């Protein structure tokens, strides 16, 4: 099994979605989708001066955004980068309450957020997605803070992050290593 920690507002998570689903299908393993709210990265530790620190932060952020747009373009995804600023906590809480294989729900929720620019925090939208995917939702309250504290205790600090057994893989760049691990485990 692959445990995948995601945030719907994260473009990196959206870009990792299809490769992870393809990996899971190829290796005949399930994916357990877990919520993890991404946060704006703190400024790097001040070096020579505040202007150098600010410049470093700006260059790093722009480089990450450029790379994300590049990979989105390669995949033919017309995305609005401002969607990364939309809080998706209600949708993540909903995800945590789903029963069954939520892969189709995750795929459709990402598409609704990034491509259709739908408010995936709207309970009517979430109910429709859930019904369309043939899933049900537990009625108990989901404590997202508690789930994230447990994830942090496992070593998480950002999403996407994946686990195969006790092996942690941070970011989509590690999907080839995950494939190798699953292949070595005879999961193909």
TrEMBL record:
A Pfam family this chain is assigned to: DSBA
Signal peptide: none
InterPro entries the record matches: DSBA-like_thioredoxin_dom, Thioredoxin-like_sf
DSBA-like thioredoxin domain span: 2-182
Superkingdom, natural source: Bacteria
Annotated protein name in UniProt: DSBA-like thioredoxin domain-containing protein
Native organism: Candidatus Paraluminiphilus aquimaris
Classification of source organism: Bacteria, Pseudomonadati, Pseudomonadota, Gammaproteobacteria, Cellvibrionales
